[in-house]
Every structure is written in structure tokens, then in C-alpha cells.
Write a structure and sequence with these properties.
InterPro entries (chains A, B): Inositol_monophosphatase-like (IPR000760)
Organism (chains A, B): Streptococcus didelphis
Radius of gyration of chain A: 17 Å
Number of helices of chain A: 8
Protein name (chains A, B): Inositol monophosphatase family protein
Order of helices and strands of chain A: HEEHEEHEEEEEEHHEHEHEEH
Oligomer: homodimer
Structural class of chain A: alpha+beta
Helix content of chain A: 25-40%
Largest interface: A-B, 31 and 31 residues
Chain lengths: 256, 256
């Protein structure tokens, strides 16, 4: 597993370099499900780059990835979960504040995860049998905080509509931040700049954080308190386990 | 004026160093107007540091600053406008994503402004007779974009309550970002990562951006389309002048 983890850490830097080179060219932008669900040629080329390098090294391993409907089930054998560019809108509009995410599972059991904030050169990696590092700094477990000294990161729509009472929760904290990407938001949860993150996301958006979070005292649950399914887009929360009971008292969640 | 501008650029780095040193100690946090309006001993000490250095060099100059009610009128003589830590909540909770802001006015006429994102070492400076630089990169004027390829930065409450139709505007763009500080948000407007910024802010929050924006084709107006008063907290927008007419069609603004 050491070997695969080292390979993944090299690979994510390699594909970041590939993406940065491509940012000098003009982007082909396509609309996916609706006007603000965008994909570029670079998302697709970066995913192809990742898959080719993984298959060259580990020919029998499988892939679950964002683009082109590459959807091997998470619980069958060796599975790499890939998000070549998380925060595509930020990538397009800002040329900044996007991430690459890679996770590796065996028979549904998370072995390690990586989240790389490309332009700010911040690599979060670890989980499973590996300690979690943000670049060269080892990250510790969640440390208890008072709600009124915390910030929440959230999908703007879920906040504005007070879905599941999220706005009620926010009102008991120092406020909300909206960064426009699951990867960079979840990285701020693990560095304890943000208490919890709420969004409506896909398996490749949470697969790495699911593994890393388990190691650091966090859990990812759907908004009805279940494990996410790793197949569909779901409304989920990334929260410290230790705060679940407190959050349950404030949020409007059926079962938790 | 070259002399004062150089002085200001050195000074803002000096006070940043002072603030970073202080971040190793524990903070004294006080609540100001309400539970999420916080100030720390470092805000106050950094402001004292700035005022002392300015008074040492320019004894007859005046100060308009955030803390301790230092409120020289903007239109009377030589006035330094100071925000020692903009984004105090981010400073306290995240130890990141806060800015120092300095602006210099003569008889109400903006001479130069500086916004320094301390932890990310990004210095935006210029305006008046000076070109605007982000570190060593000269920034160009606003370049025309389509709304549906833009992002909006906004105070979360103004968005959630659709004040002045801001949520209607956001729905015609690629979405909203909430960063938790006027300084870092307005810096992203000038680097063209964000189209426009809406918030409920004080003179020291917009004094630097007012000068820098004028140089780059932007304007800061109150939400009823007037010049901000430089005395009270007001709901304002930082927008490209070229987009005012378009925004006027979407936003609910009486006079503009």
C-alpha cells in the first residue's frame, strides 16, 4: 500500500502540472446538466491522463471517475476514485481555488485519499494506515470548539433556503463561507479553519475526504444521517463526530 | 507623493510582520456591537503601531481608523484611512484570509490605496497617479464579460434575503462566493476572479478599494446609487462602471 500511496502523491503533482500547462491555452467549455454545471476539455484530458497512468502501473485496478461515465462500483476490488478538477467553475472563472482529488478503495474499504489545491500548492494526503499531512505538516484530530467561535462552509442554495435548518445552525456560529468547491472546503475543515461543510455532491467529491476524515475524527453522512451511497449525487455533511449530538439538536434531520 | 506611497508599502509589510508575531500568542477577544462583531487586542495594537509610525513621519497628517473612534473627516487635509485587520472573524477562527488596508486622501481626493492579504502575501497597491500592482503584476482595467461566465461575492445575509434583488443577479451568474472579508473579496474583484462585491461596510473597509477601483474602471456606490459617505456603515457595491447599466436592469435600485 506504501507503494500505491507514493505513486498517488507523485501522480497528483504530475497531473497538476499538466493542468497548469493547459491553462495557458483557451478552454473549450461545455454545459452538462444545466447552465452552471460546466466541464472543460481540461477536465476530460486530465482524467484521461490519470486513468492512463494508473492503468500503466496497475492494469487490473478499476476506476470510478467524474467524466465520461466511468463508474466501477466502490465495493468491488481495487478502485481508484478520481475527480480531475473539483470546482470547475472556479477553474474557469478564477483560474484558482480548484482541486484534484484521488481516493483509493479496496472492496469498499478506504485506503488513502488526496486533495490537492493546485494553485496554492496545498496537498492534503493520508487516511487508512497513513497519517494525514497538509504538505509537511501532520494534522491532528478535531479539537473541541464552541459553536459561537466557528465558521460553516456550505452550498449557497442550501443555506439560503435554510434546508435541514442549516441557516439556523449558521446563526449560532460566526457565519458562513462559500468557496465554490468541495475539495478546498473540506481541506479547510480538516485544517480546522471551518467546523463543518454541507453540500449536494457526487461520490468523487467526497471519496477522498471520507477516508481522510475517518482518520481525523470526522464523518460524512447524508442529511438524513446515513452513510453516503457512492453512486448518486446526495446532500451530505462533513462534521466532527464529537459534534454530531450538538448538531442534531439544531439541524432538522430525521435520523442520525 | 512617491515618498508617501513608498512609506505606505513598507509600513504595511512591517505591520503584517507585527501581526504575524502576535498570532503566536493567545488572543484577547472582545465583542463589539453584537456577538459576531469581534475585536482582538491585535487589531488595536496593530492600529496603534500604524498610527505611531505615520505620526512619526508625518506629524501633521490625520487619521480615520477602525478602532477607538479615531475619526478625522475624509475631506479635511491629509488623511490616512486605516483598517488594521479586515476580516477579524477569519483572523480569529482561521488565522488566514484577513487583510490590512491603508488609504491616503488629500482634501477628500484619493491618492493611493493598499490592500494586503497577509498570510497569502498578496499586496494590491496603487490608484491616483500610481499604476495598480498585485505584487509584481500590473493589473489592467476591467475587461467586459458575460454575466453567465461570472461570479459574485456578497455578504451572506444580503444574498439570503435577496436584498436589492442581489439573489436575482446571482441567479444569472455562475454563483456566489462568501469569503468573510471586504479586503480579500475586493482584491478578487480587481484581479477579475469576481465580477462585483456587495456588502454592508464601513469607510475603512472601502477607502482603499475606492481609490484603486477608480483607476481600474470600477466604482463603489451605495445600494441607492450614491457615493458612499465615508462616515457611516452603508450597504455598498463595488462594480465595473461598464456593467452599471446591465446591473441596474436586474437589481432593485431606486436611483443609479
Amino acid at each position: 500500500m506504501e507503494n500505491k500511496f507514493s505513486f498517488a502523491k507523485s501522480l497528483i503533482k504530475e497531473v497538476a502540472h499538466f493542468i497548469k500547462e493547459k491553462m495557458n491555452d483557451s478552454l473549450d467549455i461545455e454545459v452538462k446538466s444545466n447552465y452552471d454545471d460546466l466541464v472543460t476539455n481540461v477536465d476530460q484530458e486530465a482524467q484521461d491522463f490519470l486513468i492512463k497512468r494508473i492503468k500503466d502501473h496497475f492494469p487490473t485496478d478499476n476506476i470510478l471517475a467524474e467524466e465520461n461515465n466511468v463508474r466501477h462500483p466502490i465495493d468491488k476490488g481495487a478502485v481508484w476514485v478520481l475527480d480531475p478538477i473539483d470546482g470547475t467553475v472556479n477553474f474557469i472563472v478564477q483560474g484558482n481555488n480548484f482541486a484534484i482529488m484521488i481516493a483509493y478503495y479496496e472492496d469498499g474499504c478506504g485506503q488513502f485519499g488526496l486533495i490537492y489545491d493546485v494553485m496554492n500548492d496545498l496537498l492534503l494526503s493520508g487516511g487508512g494506515s497513513f497519517d494525514v499531512y497538509l504538505n509537511h505538516k501532520k494534522l491532528g484530530n478535531y479539537t473541541k470548539k464552541e459553536l459561537n467561535r466557528c465558521l460553516i462552509a456550505c452550498n449557497a442554495g442550501m443555506f439560503a433556503n435554510n434546508e435541514y435548518g442549516i441557516a439556523n445552525l449558521v446563526s449560532q456560529t460566526l457565519g458562513i463561507r462559500v468557496y465554490g468547491g468541495a475539495g478546498i472546503s473540506m481541506m479547510k475543515v480538516f485544517s480546522q479553519e471551518i467546523l463543518a461543510y454541507f453540500s449536494y455532491i457526487q461520490p468523487w467529491d467526497y471519496a477522498a475526504a471520507f477516508i481522510i476524515g475517518k482518520k481525523l475524527g470526522y464523518t460524512i453522512l447524508t442529511m438524513d444521517g446515513k452513510e453516503p451511497d457512492f453512486t448518486s449525487r446526495q446532500k451530505v455533511m462533513l462534521v466532527p463526530k464529537e459534534e454530531l449530538a450538538t448538531l442534531k439538536q439544531i439541524l432538522d434531520i430525521k435520523e442520525m
